Amino acid sequence: MQTIGVHAALLGVVMLVGLCGTANAGAGAGAGVERLSGQFSQCRQMAKGAVEHSACLADEAQRQDERLNQLYRQLQASLQGKPRSRLVAAQRAWLTSRERDGALDSTLGEAGQIGNLQGGLDDLLRVAARGDQLQAWLDRLE
Fold first, then answer.
1. How many angstroms separate the CA atoms of 121 and 124, rounded?
2. Beta strand segments in 48-141, E
3. pLDDT band at 34, cuts 50/70/90?
4. I want to staple 56 with a disulfide (CB 3.0 to 4.6 A). Which of 11, 19, 43, 93 is the partner?
C-alpha cells in the first residue's frame, strides 16, 4: 500500500516539474508569466522529491512576492488622484481574487504533498502574472 503512495507522489512530482517547465516555456508565447527566475528553473531541475520541489516553490514565491510589492510601490508612486485610487482598489480586488482562487484550488485539488505542490505552483503563477501586469502598466507610464 505504501509503495503505491510513493509511486503516486513521484508521479506528481514529475507532473509538477513538467508544469513548471510549461509555465516557463510558455512565457514567450503570451502565457503572462514572463519573469519566473532562473534560480527557480535551476532549483526545480536539481530537486529530488517533493520536499526539495516545495523548497524551490517557496523560494520563488518569496522572490515573486518581493517583485510584486516593489512594482506596486513604484506604480503607486507614479500615480496621483483617481488613477492611484483605482490602482489601490484594483490591487485589493486582486488580493481577494487570489485568496478565493487559492481556496478553490484547495477544494478541487488533490490532498497531500502533490496537492500542496500544485497549489503552491498555482499561487506562484498568479503572483508572477500579476507582477507582469503591474510591470506592463509601469512600462506604459515611461
1. 5
2. none
3. low
4. 43
Least Cα distance to 45 among 62, 21, 64 occurs for 21
Give the residue from 77, 75, 63, 79 showing the smallest Cα distance to 127.
63
Of 57, 42, 76, give the one whose Cα is nearest residue 115: 57
Considering only CA atoms, which of 128, 110, 106, 116 is closest in space to residue 41?
128
Q: Label residues 90-117 b or e (16+ Cβ within 10 Å = b).
A: ebeebeeeeeeebeebeeebeeebbebb
pLDDT, one tens digit per residue, over 36-81 is 999 999 999 999 999 999 999 999 999 999 999 999 999 999 999 9
